[in-house]
Amino acid sequence: MHNQEPPKIIKQRLQYQGRKFNFDVNHLRLPNGVEGDWECIRHPGGALCIPVTSNGKLILVKQYRFAIKDRILEFPAGTIEENENPADTIKREIEEETGYRAHKWQKLGEFPLAPGYSDEFIYAFLAEDLEKLESPPAQDIDEDIETVLMTLQELEQAIFDGEIVDAKSICSLFLAKPFLLGNKK
């Protein structure tokens, strides 16, 4: 049987405070007595939606991501701002990133993005009954985004073909698939 006692934090220090996340180093003592340093990215979390048009197309965005030095295909998403709930975050982000507004929302779930080194959770939603905005809000100045419409089959094929699709989008697609195929919970 595994010892369920959590590690004890001996010392915690902030290494970096950034615009969207912080980075700290924690000196821990594990239940087995081993001590060491563990780094952690502290992130407020993110919200993501899978927008579905009336004819069943999925709306994705393709944008440049500096960390991997490439353009990546992903669903609209954004960082949760201070004192903001995830539903409000994604309602703002879908308009900014795609120029659409959704009138029907379904929470799909939430999951840790990279628990080995970050405390970030992603809150996933299905967005339906879309309206194309005549005057969408401006994209964030640091974003280079192209809107892409795909069928479920096209997106799955892109994933299987090795096109760069981020993990949060693949995981959220898995959560949405019963709804997309008409097998709602």
TrEMBL record:
State any single GO MF term: hydrolase activity
Classification via CDD domains: NUDIX_ADPRase_Nudt5_UGPPase_Nudt14
GO BP annotations of the record are: nucleoside phosphate metabolic process; ribose phosphate metabolic process
Q: Which residues form the Nudix hydrolase domain?
A: 41-177
UniProt KW Hydrolase keyword = yes
Per the record, the coiled-coil ranges are none
Any Pfam family:
NUDIX
InterPro entries in alphabetical order: NUDIX_hydrolase-like_dom_sf, NUDIX_hydrolase_CS, NUDIX_hydrolase_dom
Cofactor(s) essential for the protein: Mg(2+)
Keywords of the record: Hydrolase
UniProt xrefs under SUPFAM superfamilies:
Nudix (SSF55811)
PROSITE patterns for this protein = NUDIX, NUDIX_BOX
Keyword S-adenosyl-L-methionine in record: no
Enumerate the PANTHER family for this protein. Answer: NUDIX HYDROLASE DOMAIN-CONTAINING PROTEIN, UDP/ADP-SUGAR PYROPHOSPHATASE
Name-wise, this protein is: NUDIX hydrolase
Q: Which organism's genome codes for this protein?
A: Okeania hirsuta
